[in-house]
Design brief:
Elements (H helix, E strand, L loop, with lengths): L2 E9 L4 H14 L3 E5 L3 E3 L10 E10 L3 H14 L14 E7 L4 E3 L2 E3 L8 H10 L1
Protein backbone atom coordinates (compact mmCIF):
# COMPACT_ATOMS: atom_id res chain seq x y z
CA UNK A 1 0.00 0.00 0.00
CA UNK A 2 1.32 3.44 -0.90
CA UNK A 3 1.76 5.94 1.93
CA UNK A 4 2.15 9.71 1.79
CA UNK A 5 5.13 10.85 3.81
CA UNK A 6 7.28 13.93 4.20
CA UNK A 7 11.06 14.07 4.22
CA UNK A 8 13.58 16.72 5.14
CA UNK A 9 16.72 17.02 3.03
CA UNK A 10 19.83 19.07 3.75
CA UNK A 11 23.44 19.46 2.70
CA UNK A 12 26.34 21.68 3.76
CA UNK A 13 29.39 20.01 2.22
CA UNK A 14 30.61 20.12 -1.36
CA UNK A 15 28.22 21.16 -4.14
CA UNK A 16 25.12 21.37 -1.95
CA UNK A 17 22.58 21.74 -4.78
CA UNK A 18 24.14 18.87 -6.69
CA UNK A 19 24.02 16.72 -3.53
CA UNK A 20 20.30 17.42 -3.12
CA UNK A 21 19.61 16.67 -6.80
CA UNK A 22 21.52 13.39 -6.52
CA UNK A 23 19.59 12.40 -3.39
CA UNK A 24 16.29 13.06 -5.23
CA UNK A 25 17.49 10.92 -8.10
CA UNK A 26 18.41 8.08 -5.73
CA UNK A 27 15.03 8.32 -4.01
CA UNK A 28 13.30 7.96 -7.39
CA UNK A 29 15.59 5.06 -8.32
CA UNK A 30 14.39 3.30 -5.17
CA UNK A 31 10.76 3.50 -6.30
CA UNK A 32 9.88 6.53 -4.19
CA UNK A 33 7.58 8.95 -5.99
CA UNK A 34 8.31 12.60 -5.26
CA UNK A 35 5.00 14.47 -5.30
CA UNK A 36 6.17 17.94 -4.25
CA UNK A 37 9.44 19.70 -3.51
CA UNK A 38 9.68 22.90 -1.50
CA UNK A 39 11.96 25.75 -2.39
CA UNK A 40 15.52 25.33 -1.20
CA UNK A 41 16.46 27.51 1.77
CA UNK A 42 19.95 28.47 2.86
CA UNK A 43 20.28 28.40 6.64
CA UNK A 44 22.93 28.62 9.33
CA UNK A 45 23.82 25.39 11.09
CA UNK A 46 22.23 24.79 14.49
CA UNK A 47 24.20 23.09 17.21
CA UNK A 48 27.36 21.13 16.67
CA UNK A 49 30.73 22.54 15.64
CA UNK A 50 31.26 25.68 13.54
CA UNK A 51 30.45 24.78 9.93
CA UNK A 52 29.18 26.10 6.61
CA UNK A 53 25.58 27.01 5.81
CA UNK A 54 23.05 24.37 4.83
CA UNK A 55 20.71 24.12 1.92
CA UNK A 56 17.43 22.62 3.19
CA UNK A 57 14.20 21.51 1.55
CA UNK A 58 11.18 19.33 2.26
CA UNK A 59 9.67 16.63 0.07
CA UNK A 60 6.20 15.13 -0.15
CA UNK A 61 6.60 11.52 -1.25
CA UNK A 62 4.57 8.41 -1.92
CA UNK A 63 6.18 5.14 -0.95
CA UNK A 64 5.21 1.53 -0.47
CA UNK A 65 8.09 1.07 1.97
CA UNK A 66 7.11 0.63 5.62
CA UNK A 67 8.67 3.20 7.98
CA UNK A 68 11.78 1.23 9.03
CA UNK A 69 12.48 0.15 5.46
CA UNK A 70 12.21 3.76 4.33
CA UNK A 71 14.61 4.82 7.08
CA UNK A 72 17.04 2.08 6.08
CA UNK A 73 16.92 3.24 2.45
CA UNK A 74 17.50 6.88 3.45
CA UNK A 75 20.54 5.84 5.51
CA UNK A 76 21.84 3.85 2.53
CA UNK A 77 21.57 6.93 0.30
CA UNK A 78 23.42 8.99 2.90
CA UNK A 79 26.19 6.41 3.12
CA UNK A 80 26.41 5.97 -0.66
CA UNK A 81 26.76 9.75 -1.01
CA UNK A 82 29.69 9.80 1.38
CA UNK A 83 28.08 10.91 4.61
CA UNK A 84 30.35 10.13 7.51
CA UNK A 85 29.24 10.07 11.13
CA UNK A 86 31.69 12.30 12.94
CA UNK A 87 30.25 14.57 15.63
CA UNK A 88 26.59 15.08 16.54
CA UNK A 89 25.06 17.82 14.37
CA UNK A 90 28.29 17.92 12.36
CA UNK A 91 28.66 18.82 8.68
CA UNK A 92 27.24 16.43 6.12
CA UNK A 93 27.15 15.78 2.42
CA UNK A 94 23.48 14.85 2.67
CA UNK A 95 20.98 14.51 5.46
CA UNK A 96 17.64 12.76 4.90
CA UNK A 97 15.03 12.63 7.66
CA UNK A 98 11.52 11.22 7.89
CA UNK A 99 9.47 14.13 9.17
CA UNK A 100 5.99 12.62 8.90
CA UNK A 101 4.85 9.16 7.82
CA UNK A 102 1.24 8.50 6.75
CA UNK A 103 -0.18 10.52 9.63
CA UNK A 104 1.19 7.99 12.10
CA UNK A 105 2.95 8.47 15.40
CA UNK A 106 5.91 6.12 15.78
CA UNK A 107 8.00 5.90 18.95
CA UNK A 108 10.42 3.02 18.61
CA UNK A 109 14.12 2.61 19.13
CA UNK A 110 15.79 4.15 16.11
CA UNK A 111 12.71 5.93 14.71
CA UNK A 112 10.48 8.64 16.13
CA UNK A 113 7.81 10.19 13.89
CA UNK A 114 6.90 13.03 13.76
CA UNK A 115 10.59 13.91 13.79
CA UNK A 116 11.29 14.83 17.43
CA UNK A 117 13.03 18.16 16.77
CA UNK A 118 11.16 19.38 13.70
CA UNK A 119 8.88 21.73 15.65
CA UNK A 120 11.96 23.55 17.00
CA UNK A 121 13.52 24.07 13.59
CA UNK A 122 12.43 26.79 11.22
CA UNK A 123 14.64 25.24 8.51
CA UNK A 124 12.29 22.22 8.63
CA UNK A 125 8.95 23.93 9.23
CA UNK A 126 9.31 26.65 6.62
CA UNK A 127 9.80 24.34 3.62
CA UNK A 128 7.33 21.79 5.05
CA UNK A 129 4.56 24.42 5.22
CA UNK A 130 5.01 25.01 1.47
CA UNK A 131 4.12 21.46 0.50
CA UNK A 132 1.52 20.31 3.03
Amino acid sequence: MTQVSYLGVGSNLGDRKKNIRRALSLLKAGGIKIEKISRIYETKSQGGPAQGKYLNAALKIKTSLPPFSLLKYLKKIEKDMGREKTVRFGPRTIDLDILLYAGKTIKKKGLVVPHPRMFERDFVLRPLREII
